[in-house]
Amino acid sequence: MAFETILFEVTNGAARLTLNRPDRLNSFTVQMHDEVARALSYVETDPSARVLLITGSGRGFCAGQDLSDRAVTPGGEGVDLGASLDKSYNPLVRRLTVLPKPVICAVNGVAAGAGANIALAADIVLAAKSAKFIQAFANIGLVPDSGGTWILPRLVGQARAMGLALTGQPLTAEQAEAWGLIWRAVDDDRLMDETNALVARLAAGPTKGLAAIKKAIRAAWSNDLDPHLDLERDMQRELGRSSDYREGVSAFGEKRAPKFTGN
Ligand code: T3D
To answer: Is 27 a pocket residue for ligand 1 (Cβ < 6 Å)?
Structure first.
């Protein structure tokens, strides 16, 4: 696959997608959305890709929408940004959250606007300590999109969600970790080593079981306990028939590391 705005490879069980417009802090254009969508289609269908890593090149992770693509002037016409969300941002967030494989995001630098919320749509977020999360939307008269107004109050509570969204103030990676917005803030020079270790661990994991964990935890946002217990039962029933479960139990008994195949 040939790409111009992203880097994409699948090696050792892991798909690695790098947003690659560093001069524009990896902000999204129509072309970049198209290329990310094509890469995601590959990850969705290729069983050899058992985990997806998303990161950015250069000093930023992603500055959201490329504003130079929005030809608006103070006295001019407005634009239908809902169409952009329908076509690009919402499908991307939906696909990341339902992908039956773990999505890891390594936030290497500033994550602003939709860039912040696409990062937060990942299942595990690691960030360099120098990175910042900015709900930049209020600065340009918009509402946090890409799931921002949905995920923020759930992860950090209403008071902090309101503060972040209404002021657009940057949140440091360390504060984001302390608030429960992300998994871990790590020293900048350790980010990719720590991310790669996590990616390797998950790529060698019991893929079906990991997919079920992801699905169950995400479903918990909207389920009552009773149906959720039924969901766990149904998942466990299916996983009990998987070869990775049999391998995991056998390996435990034999005091060796399991060799999961993802089946
Ligand atoms: O439109 C729709 O489809 C609706 C959906 C919207 C989703 C959204 O994401 S809306 C929010 C869009 N994003 C922003 O408003 C963020 C804009 N950027 C910034 O506020 C700042 O750049 C940052 C806080 C992210 C980083 O600041 P700083 O000082 O570290 O870097 P900088 O100097 O501002 O940016 C570096 C370069 O990247 C600069 O270009 P230059 O001057 O070197 O030629 C800057 O213009 C460019 N850049 C940064 N963000 C964007 C961008 N260019 C286009 N679009 C951007 N979003």
So the answer is: yes
Is the full-model pTM beyond 0.85? Answer: yes
- C-alpha separations of 175 from 3, 139, 179, 203 in Å: 35, 21, 6, 29
- Region label for 180, one of left (φ > 0), alpha (ψ between -120 and 50) or beta (otherwise): left
Kindly give the number of the ligand 1 atom that is closest to the alpha carbon of 114.
Answer: 9
Is the beta carbon of 112 within 6 A of some atom in ligand 1?
A: yes
**Ligand 1 in reach of 28 Cβ (< 6 A):** no
pLDDT tens for 153-182 read 999 999 999 999 999 999 999 999 999 999
Ligand 1 nearest atom to the CA of residue 89, by list position: 5
Domains in the chain (CATH in brackets) are 6-203 (3.90.226.10), 207-253 (1.10.12)
